TrEMBL record:
GO terms for molecular function: calcium ion binding. SUPFAM superfamilies: EF-hand. The keyword Coiled coil does not apply. This is Cytoskeletal protein RodZ. It comes from Sphingomonas kaistensis. It comes from the Bacteria. Keywords: Signal. Residues 37-87 have a biased composition (Low complexity).
Amino acid sequence: MIKQALFGLLVATSTAAVAQTTTQPATDPLSPAVPMTTPSGTTPATPATPATPADPATGTAATPATPATPATPATQAEAEATPPTDTAGIVAADWATYDTNKNKALSRTEFTKWVTTLQTTAGQKAPTKSYLDGAFKTADADKSGSVSQPELVKFLSS
């Protein structure tokens, strides 16, 4: 339960995508323009074009429908700026914030800071020392005295 709350909080505190509203011009002159909300840095999806039926009177053939084109990020940098939603992606995105000595592992102090920040940001009271000790021991599956990214992902996913 606590791990689920931490994961939910991790998702909520990771970088949020900024949405912008654009207006898609109407393809039919009688229909109004369609407002669309897309994450910043993306190209909005192109709507599908309906099929045109054959007209036996004029001899024109039917035109098949054109499928919609999905929205895509405008650049690679903007694609990378879109926050991840999976546990591994979120941990990777926020790892540098907490691995302050850049040794690719969280010490007990770094792990404690991370968990405390998550809980207090969520409006919960700061975790107790016994909770933090237990969480660290559980997350440090290989008992190395530090928590690696894969260990943290596994801890938050279980």
